[in-house]
Amino acid sequence: MASVPLKRLDGIEICRGLAAMLVVLYHASRHIDKALGMHFIRQIFQFGHSGVDLFFVISGFIIFYIHGQDIGKKDKLFSYVKKRFIRIMPLYWIAMLITFIIAVLGKHQTPVAIQFLWQFFLLPANGGMILDVAWTLKFEVLFYMLFAILITNKLAGTLLLAAWYGMAILSLTISNYVINIPHQFYDAYVLEFMFGIMAAIIIKKYKKHIPDYAIYVGITFFMISAILEDLNIIDGYKNAARLMYGISSMMIIISVASFKQNIQKNIFSKFLFVLGDATYSVYLFQFILIGITWKFLSIGNIGRELDPGVQFVIISAIAIFGGIWISFLIEKPTIMFTKKIFDNLINKNNSTKNYYSR
Fold first, then answer.
1. By residue range, what is the domain housing residue 198?
2. 218/233 Cα distance (integer angstroms)
3. Percent of the chain having pLDDT more than 90?
4. Are the beta carbons of 284 and 314 closer than 8 angstroms?
5. What DSSP state is assigned to residue 5?
6. Which of 45, 101, 335, 358 could form a disulfide with 29 if both were Cys (CB 3.0 to 4.6 A apart)?
7. Confidence of residue 180 (pLDDT cuts 50, 70, 90)
8. Is residue 4 part of a domain?
9. Is 2 contained in some domain?
10. CB contact at 8 A, 201 and 253
């Protein structure tokens, strides 16, 4: 398979920014509706959870786009695992522990030790989590693990991924599909990682043949899906929605990744690019920031004097810009620190090997 230069895809980063914004608006609108009974605002942004569908497709695309050339090469495994670990786990642990401390101080129910450890390492499991939004990360980590096997052994990895996707397809065809294993092994969300891989394969093979206007087809399909959900014509939490949002997200990613024109640089596109770069922080810390902001608005008459729509804007803005701030002050330094630890361990290990080989 011909490889594509692994340059930074600005369009994909902007899509990540849009996905993050959708999820934040979705959660902020649900919070305002629950607290103030603003059902209208919630209904407008009901489709915002589709940002998760877009995230999963992007994840499948990025992993195969970057590491597809590593399949079957055992010597690439450590580098792959290191990158995935550094990118996901340290910041998740920080967000999880902060949420756990808040739960303890607020005298909310917390998991027992074994459940805590299971969630700490994002292992497949049913049920809720301390950090609620981290349910998506269990899908991500399982996908990363299966792809790691693909890097180690092409045949074994291919068979396992095929089985994973096969179970997800089976769950679409069987009503009330129930099985006594974690739903990360068969949920319809699994198919969205496959859509992402398909998008990467199409880009690697047919990038030059994809017209620029194809993006409008994907966006239109995605918007139609969103409108149908907001109008309660489709259930956004059912399997049909996973296919609609997943396939339209795949079409958008294919179009964006093959875009031949330069993306127009303006304030909005620059903001989305920054947001895309800070997506993980925005995603992990949104509930914490929404909760803190709401507590502040609840002091005295601050919130009562503000229109619910204004409160929604304030909560959403702080969740987004606060996440960007956290990305610069916490996420990036944490990544650099963790990377330095890995590099020091590797260098120390190499020095030890060289010493004993004399």
1. 10-356
2. 20
3. 72
4. no
5. -
6. 45
7. confident
8. no
9. no
10. no
